[in-house]
Prior knowledge:
two-stranded antiparallel ribbon
Amino acid sequence: MERPDIQKVIEALLFITEQPIPLKSLEAVFENQTPREELLSILQSITSDYAQRDSALEVREIAGGWQMATRPEFAPWIRKLFKDRLTYRLSNSALETLSIVAYKQPITRSEIEEIRGVEVTAVLDTLTERKLVRIAGRRESIGRPLLYGTTPDFLKAFGLKRLEDLPSIESLVPPVSEPSAEAPVPEGDAPQDPPETAEPIPASVDITN
Length: 209
């Protein structure tokens, strides 16, 4: 099969599927007759074509695969059409717990609670039901507690190719400013609290089924 024909087949597959297509799946579709490098080059060509034509659609590398999607600026119009579908909004406590799982995984419930300082069983159940968090095994320690990690749906929800694309924690923490020499703290005054750290991920996110 010639490259233009392969490109048309891949474009059709990207259009029809609801899940990101991994490269290995495309290799299987073409019965391993098309080298992986060629498939990757074609995917990049399709991505470039859609970007150059300023289409309402785009091709993304996301969650370990490739997927066709609408561009973010059209989301309000799509929600109007599918207004009967459920839209979940995560609470701040759910986002905090999800952030801890994302950056510390695999992690046990008790370790999350030690960081947050509150009980998180119900929050973990909610995140698991929404397929953002999964049970990733058991720790080989006393009681063999469950370990939690994120899912491919988590990557899709936050537009990440892979977990390594999460911003570093250091980049999310604002620098602590040194006390200015021109503004000394008067004797007897209480020391100021350090600045709060930034949220590692947005304050809220819509998860639409």
